[in-house]
Amino acid sequence: MVRTSTTEAVVLRKIRIGEIHKALTLFSPENGLLSAIAHGAFKMKSKLRTASEPFHVIRVYLYHNPVSDQYKITDIESLNALDGIRRSVERYYAASLWAEVIIKSYGGGESFGVPYRLLVDSLSLLEHAQQRCITHLTCQYLMRFLDILGQRPDFEHCGICASGFDTQSGVYLSREERVLVCHRCAKPSAMYLPAGARRYLGSTLKMPLEVAVRIGLEDRSLQAVKEAAYFLVQATLETNLNALKSGVGIL
Ligand SMILES: [Zn+2]
Q1: Is 61 exposed, middle or buried (0-12, 13-18, 19+ CB in 10 A)?
Q2: Which of 34, 57, 39 shows the shortest CA–CA distance to 49?
Q3: In the chain, domain spans
Q4: CATH dotted code for 84-246
Q5: How far, in Å, from the CA of 156 to the mean position of ligand 1?
């Protein structure tokens, strides 16, 4: 039986154990979520110290202890440090939100390669992103993640009467059905999305991510897209996201 293995991964979360050890949650394109202990990684001189920080893209070498059924990290090679994320509170909170979505969806379904690529591509763009671009990236990331889960609403047709949306009218997000609906089908509890917000979603999600984040959107529409994305992701995962609570005023 093979006890050692290696995989590429992103560090999603670290928890301190005792004085000097780190328990890491890793996301790997082959294995999905992995918990592994980096012994001594809080020591100043530890070779595991830097690369075991959140949002580092790494190649990790693991030893599986069959008795405790735990993974131990024997070595880490840095593939992309993404230092710019840890230097900005806004970027760090955004990345924490994205990581929590991966953790709470158990890695985003059956195949981990696609959500992994989305996460790494988004983190790479986030590293040097300015405030407004961070919000664009979060909207793109969350909507694309919903698409991977098969939970993205149709942006072209009313989810109840199936009529096509016209370009100039706003639409509504039904909280019960989690679909976009026209003004005739909307209940009072529905969330309003300006016409620009719907057009933005309909067109940008088909674009490569690095192109989509450069597409402008007026404030009111950007805010509506963000609120819709937060609502849809939490409704799909059937849980509140802690990052949104701790990041109030930032995210
Ligand atoms: Zn309708």
Answers
A1: middle
A2: 39
A3: 4-81, 84-246
A4: 1.20.1440.120
A5: 11
Interval between CA 203 and ligand 1 midpoint (Å): 21
Residue 81 Cα to ligand 1 midpoint, Å, equals 48
Q: HSE, CB side, 13 Å, CA atoms: give it for residue 213.
A: 24
Query: How many angstroms does the Cα of residue 162 sit away from the middle of ligand 1?
Result: 6
For 196-210, how does the pLDDT look when each residue is reduced to its tens digit (9 = 90+)?
999 999 999 999 999
Instruction: Record the pTM.
Output: 0.95
Percent of the chain topping pLDDT 90: 95
Which top CATH class is 4-81?
A: mainly beta
- Span from the CA of 181 to the centroid of ligand 1 (angstroms): 5
Distance 172 CA to ligand 1 centre (A): 10
Q: Find how far residue 76's CA is from the centre of its chain.
A: 23
Distance CA 1, CA 14 (A): 29
Distance 225 CA to ligand 1 centre (A): 20
Q: Which residues contact 18 (CB under 8 A, 6 or more apart)?
A: none
